[in-house]
Amino acid sequence: MKEFPSRLIPKNKDRFSNYCYNRNIAYLRKEIYELVIMGDENSYFELDKFERRHKLKKGEIEKMSDTVSEELVELGWNVKKSFGNTGLFIYSSENPPPSCYDDEF
To answer: Does domain 14-91 have CATH number 1.10.10?
Structure first.
């Protein structure tokens, strides 16, 4: 960052949490994009690690993952959470990848 954004002013303090949320969801999209273009649909995105690394507030990762899941579905992908909602599989086939653990009993 070459300079501070003009919106970083005391008057906008009430908006900082929204700025942070938008920044983190952008990071989430970027990391998921990088996973998807690697081409291994048997791999999954580790939501819990992302949550810890970015020190998200309670409930934020669920909201973010729901948002990006909807966006991916709109793009034609299939999406499924696994491993107690800590792993996000993104795949093109009708059935989830073999490593996708079904949490439903």
So the answer is: yes
Domain boundaries defined on the chain: 14-91
pTM here is 0.89
Distances in Å between the Cα of 56 and the Cα atoms of 8, 48, 60, 85 are 20, 10, 6, 16
Taking only the tens place, the pLDDT of each residue in 43-94 is: 999 999 999 999 998 899 999 999 999 999 999 999 999 999 999 999 999 9
User: Which of 86, 77, 70, 80 lies closest to 100 in space, CA to CA?
Assistant: 80
Alpha-carbon distance values, 25 to 10, 14, 58, 97 (Å):
24, 19, 15, 25
